[in-house]
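Dear U.,

For the methods section draft, I wanted the exact inputs and outputs in one place so we can describe them consistently. I've listed the two proteins in the order they'll appear in the manuscript figures. Please don't edit the token lines directly; just add comments below if something needs changing.

First protein:
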Amino acid sequence: MTGHNIIAIGASAGGVETLSKLVSQLPSDLNAAVFVAIHFPPHATSVLPQILNRLKTVPAQHPAEGDAIEAGRIYIAPPDYHLFIQKGRIHLDHGARENGHRPAIDTMFRSIAHTYGRRVVGVILTGTLDDGAAGLLTIKAQGGVALVQDPNEALFTGMPESAIKTVKVDEILKVREIATRLIELSNTPIQEKKLMTEEISREGEWVAQEKAAIERGERSGMASAFTCPDCGGVLWELQDQSLMRYRCHVGHAYSIDSLLSEKDNSLERALWSANRALEEKAALARRMAAQAKRSNHLMSEEQFLERAAEAESHAAVLKQVLLQQIELKLQPEETKKS
């Protein structure tokens, strides 16, 4: 019988260090193919394969489109591409971001779960927010095993805690224990499991069907009151078990935490734009005041100076709000929670 020889790992902040620690404890003849999604900036140059290959355990690479899947290799989703799994091969996709990320952990997890089912072990490591929770739910629904790094050990607790809250995980382990468990599972014959029902993996198709039904006038649909931070389209509310998500018809998808984070970023950008507009208004008013003074229009000069002072005052208030928001973002997660 086949063992759990498909391993899917997701991580975000602190992921390079944690993944390196995990891979350092795996044998070079690991009886499994390992797939990794870590949040990279879209235009970053990733050297993660080189970092992992220095450990001289399981060889790592950024796969190319159509690469065949082999046991005993680590396949890392390259920056700005989702990693999908088709039977025996890898597909790279530049599609819509999920939870604000491409590559996204949820995207890769769902693809692997539906291709390999009970053979999959999903692993959530350190990271902020909650990307990976929906994907791990799909892995469990398809009969796979769900492992999560102990939040007490994780450099960033958001992703592990979200996965534990959302999914009935099989084990919560430290990194060293995860490595040992992966080795055991890769050599353990798969036991039959009753699959749970789930809808997350088909949510893109579901939204397309709902949108088409609305256009035909068949029903009003389940559009939410929220708009997509990426494209401005209507977000559709999707719920599977205890997990609520949002997806627009273009394909951008968000968990609640990720949507809130993106809305915070949108608000910050709007505030900076307003701050810039006020500062430009003040500068223009001062130039008009100078022009009025040269023309000996003293009343107009006074009025323009008053407008400039008012705009500068409003800009100062906005800047103070923005600086407070930045300070809050820079605080450690534990401080924010308290």
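Second protein (the one for the lower panel):
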Amino acid sequence: MTSLRYDRRETVRIFRDRLQAVLEQGQFSQSAFAQRIGIDRSTLSQLLSPHNDRLPRADTVAAMALAGQVSVDWLLGLSQDETGDEAIVGQPLEIAREAWDPANERLTTWHAEAAGYKIRYVPSTLPDLLKTDAVTEFEYEPSKGMTVNEAATTAQSRLDYSRRPETDIEACSSFQSVEGFARGEGIWRDLPAKARREQLTQLADLSEELYPTFRWFLFDALERYVPPITVFGPLRAILYAGEVYFIFNATEHIRLLTEHFDSLIRSAVVQPNELPQYVRDLMGEIDG
């Protein structure tokens, strides 16, 4: 059974952010809110301080949730549902069918919401933000879902996002998938050698430019397996299964997928600082 580690600092951070959101949404001053829940203003200021490392007593958290008309579980980061009355996890799972366009819009929103948190990402092929236009067109032109223009726009927005100073993104792929691309195997069989060579150059250049805010690890697919997923810090996790997205909102599920992702990093055979040269060396695998 996988053990779930409790990260007290992360819980305190989520609590602090959400408590601040309660004050802003309710247009409470600190003095008025402190009086309403029965604590000193100085105590509330301490709880909102970025240097704070503790949670208040259970009865104080309950009073805060009641005053802000939110759930205790949401306030403590145990649910993404502000007003739900589920016992622990709110709505733990959503399923979005035929979700290429709606999910694309939601993914953009989720990336924005996760600013300041680490995003963990396992792409279905190559990382979108590193793709050339030619590879994007080749990959999405036959698609019945997202158009080439939509895919290109998404890739550019992800690249722009990765260049923001607060960005912290980790990606994991198998080294076999990258080597298979270089050799033109599988779905890449009909992609011209020139396009593959240009893509490898861009993979190397961008992964070098974006490091360390974007870190791409390669693992051995013979030893490990993981489906395409994105974990948005402690907020939510998305598992992609073709035309269906599984959206995990329960803290327990998010932690489980986070731990699985982190285990891939620990087993990586190519580290981010090694990746640019590793990719450039693959140029020799391209014929023509």
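Candidate sentences for the figure legend, describing the second protein: The chain has two domains: 8-75, 93-285. The longest strand covers residues 169-174.

Thanks,
Y.
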